[in-house]
Amino acid sequence: MSVAPGTLVRMKQNDIPDGGGTAVQVRGLVKHYGETKALDGVDLDVREGTVLGVLGPNGAGKTTLVRILSTLIRPDAGSARVAGYDVLTQPRQLRRAIGLTGQYASVDEKLSGFENLYMIGRLLDLSRKDARRRADDLLERFSLTEAAKRPAGQYSGGMRRRLDLAASMIGHPAVLYLDEPTTGLDPRTRNEVWTEVQGMVREGATVLLTTQYMEEAEQLADELTVIDRGRVIAGGGIDELKAKVGGRTLQIRPADRSELPRVVGAVAQAGLDGVAGATADEAEGVVNVPIVSDHQLTSVVGLMAERGIALAGINTHLPSLDEVFLAITGQKTSTAAEDTPADTLQEISA
Amino acid sequence: MSAATITAPAKAHSADTRIPLRSHLRHIGALARRNLLAIKQDPESMFDAVLMPIIFTLMFVYVFGGAMFGKGHQEQYVNYLVPGLLAMTGLNIAMAVGTGINEDFRKGIMDRFRTMPIARSSVLIAKIVSELFRLMVAVAIQLGMGFALGLEVKTSVLHLFAAIGLSIVFGASLMWIFILLGLTMKTAQAVQGVAMLVLMPLQFGSSIFAPTNSMPGWLKSFADYNPLANLADASRNLLQGGPVAHSVWLTLAWAVGITVITAPLAVARFRNKT
């Protein structure tokens, strides 16, 4: 098999057969810190070759879950198997099968990008030559070749996350944990990281992704588990969940406000499945249409053209995490509802 | 479908999950290299190893030397003091290990190390290896300073190396104490505070700076059992001539005793740290 330099190729022994077994299996996981129930009986599965998004607000137990699954802490009760290995009885084998990219980049700031990756290669028992080659390949793949000799401490936030991702990939892990990989990053950098993760996923990586952002889950995950206060409160495919929470909202602004009823009427006739009907917002001069698929978006827009309704604006917006929670539980998130990415950014830089 | 269908890496299949010795040494090498590269990147971290011996030697020789041996006769004090300072170097370097490991542990990189298939002791042993490098630099500067001010080795080069070796062995054992301390205490400042508290009596309640004869009985008894004083005596007699057997063996016994007790505790502490 010929491989272009810089591409990631799984080593044979880590290849996960198609058709998918369960790469991560969590049953009844409990972890208490004094009175705080960080995890209070969590069950979840990640199928091989898929991305499971674990969505939840700050303090929902996401990081505790990842720390247990990477053998950093021990659960109080319940069981978890990763790549077939038990977190409690086979930690050493399990560690060989995982890669971890944490919320705070786990790279050595004093070492250069190259030295970071080389060190990890050596710790994973690569020969000097192989460790060097693997480091160079991954630096190239993650567009860090030019910065290879600079200390990681001088990297921008996005470069550091990319180096962190590269470090996690050195051992060709069977399962990759991404613990809030874009928390605290600006939107452009966030897109960079998403692109890298999507690349890995295309190559068949099995990923457990934790995130606070619905948008991130939608971009990266195949399936979602929503957790709050240490409990799973919803789960399933992205589309299922979106159907449940109303998915995206399409906002149509006709050029002439008097056309609002016509827009509503047209959408009603389109016969969209699985969503509540369109509602006109007279004050804003828009019609809000909940949609669950791109196909529905296309047909609604097509219908407007067909009916000759002149439009002044059209856009879609995703439900926020808070709206998702509201739809599932009828309650706001347990932590501060106004926890926006901007807030998080400030927290981290503070 | 069961999770067992995932093919795990071949190595993990072996029944023996212990890390083979060669891999263990490779891991220690890679981690020690990391520590040394960090020193290279941040040369200020060598200040204590480089400046402490210079400042201590100058300060004590010129402040106390004249008072003890008369003005202009400081070089006599050099021969008394420098072997003692050689003994103290290990303690000073070891102290920095505690604060260093405490700070290191706060960084995300430690999480990465702890999720990798390496023996957790290798992280600590690598720390000792790179700190021994710092200790050797400090010892070399200490001796260079001593020779510049008139230190004489009245025995032989072999005795000199024995004294150096003894200081390094004892210093390495002290490092385990401070690693344990660094992993146990919450902040680097707390480690520093406790270290100073332990350090001062051990340094000054000893024969490092002045003979113990003039000390009151209780302090003299303390100094007689003070392992640092034993090391200072051993070091002094190795360089200046005099009975060495008792103090050398006692120092080695202390070094072994300290390591045997604190090293496993430190590794266990590291393993269970969350």
UniProtKB/TrEMBL annotation, chain B:
One of its GO terms (biological process) is response to antibiotic. The keyword Protein biosynthesis does not apply. Residues 44-273 form the ABC transmembrane type-2 domain. Its main location: membrane. One of its GO terms (cellular component) is ATP-binding cassette (ABC) transporter complex. It is a multi-pass membrane protein. The chain crosses the membrane at residues 49-69, 81-102, 123-145, 157-183, 190-210, 248-268. It is found in: Cell membrane; Membrane. Keywords: Antibiotic resistance, Cell membrane, Membrane, Transmembrane, Transmembrane helix, Transport. The keyword Magnesium does not apply. It comes from the Bacteria. GO terms for molecular function: ABC-type transporter activity. Belongs to the ABC-2 integral membrane protein family. This is Transport permease protein. It comes from Streptomyces caatingaensis.
